[in-house]
Amino acid sequence: MKILFLHGAIKNGGDFLIAHRSELLIQSIVQECEIVSMWEGTDFSKEENYEILDSCDGIVYGGGPFFTNNIYPHDIPLIKDLEQIHKPMINIGGGWFGRDNRFSTIKNYPMNDESIQLLKIIELSAQQLSCRDWYTVYMLKEKGFNAVMTGCPAWYDLNYIDKTDFVIPKEINTICISDPAVSKHEKLAIKLIEWVKEKNPDANVFLVFHRGYDTNSELYRYAKMQGCDVKDISGGYEGFEIYDQCQLHIGFRVHAHIYNLSHRNFSILIEEDGRGAGVNNALGLSSVKAYGDSRINNPTLKKVEFHLAYKINDEFINELEALLLKAYSTNGLEYKQAFERMQAFYIEMKEHIEIISKW
């Protein structure tokens, strides 16, 4: 069997992690399959690309924020006439791109008609759409789709899937901070570094950039001034190994959080939007938001208007301290339960990927 696997990895390390783990899952679950991996933005109307598509037995769409406002034809152009694709299709652990996790945001999440058409074709082929969090499930069900919760493919490192034990580290010698994706949150990242260095003066602190960095940025310069090791893990999944040496990750990148949890490490995510909120909600983990509740919640608001109305969460350090107190007081109970949930959802993911075997 030959599978065309479409992924969204260009620069962001997290996208490469999703693609890598998706392929490993397919290879472990679907026996004797050849995977042809290509960027989802590829134009398959071009003859040389269409020949690749036509030579495959089916199409798999990787995880990430697959359910965007304009999946087709903006994010995934495919070909001009979807009816010409006579191939079975399936998606794996797709997520939405909501600004926050309010019900009104979920219910009113906009999606263009062409995207709805593509999703109907995938649903007809696979009988369901695979989602990485419950907010995505709710959003799709509001639009009439059969959506199932499988978790994100990056949740599942098969070397750790059977491990649910968790011990809160008594001594923290190395801390990794992942960078914010939203530029307005750089000042919060600076506050976070200041707080981490104050609370852990002898610890080694790494600031990890997932999409590269600008050496002239205020965040980069502050981190270097404070003696942090700065790492760039963009362009591949291999850089995530930096997190294997830390006892604690605190940061803004969803897939830094996911990678650490997949290795049963202590991790706290500062949620920047509905994607981060979706992970913590799905796994039952307490949350700290980067944004304030007072920001305008209107999914139809133009981007410029939205950013003018944007408010950051000035209390996030206090909320972070409360979360840490809870984690230590309960000996990491939430994390043990989160790992058990990962284990349970892996069964759902496995059953979903097994659909490919019927092609």
Summarize this, please?
The protein is 40% helix and 16% strand. The protein has 359 residues and is an alpha/beta fold. The protein has a six-stranded parallel β-sheet, with helices on both faces. A four-stranded parallel β-sheet has the order 2-1-3-5, with helices on both faces. The chain has a two-stranded parallel ribbon with strand order 4-6.
Structure description:
- 40% of the residues lie in helices and 16% in strands.
- It has 359 residues and is of the alpha/beta class.
- The strands form 4 sheets. The protein has a 6-stranded parallel beta sheet with strand order 11-10-9-12-13-14, with helices on both faces.
- Helix 8 links the parallel strand 10 and strand 11.
- It is globular and about 60 Å long.
- The termini are close together.
Task: Pick out its properties.
359 residues, alpha/beta, six-stranded parallel beta sheet, four-stranded parallel beta sheet, globular
Poorly predicted runs are none
Q: Give the CA-based shape.
A: globular
Query: What percentage of residues falls in helices of 4 or more residues?
Result: 25-40%
Briefly note the structural class of the backbone.
alpha/beta
Indicate the radius of gyration in whole angstroms: 20 Å
**Count of alpha and pi helical runs:** 13
Number of strands: 14
Largest sheet: 6 strands, parallel
Order of helices and strands: EHEHEEHEEHHEHEEHEHEEHEHEHHH
Tell me the strand order in the biggest sheet.
11-10-9-12-13-14
Whole-Å distance between the termini?
A: 8 Å
Share in β-strands:
15-25%
Mean pLDDT: 94
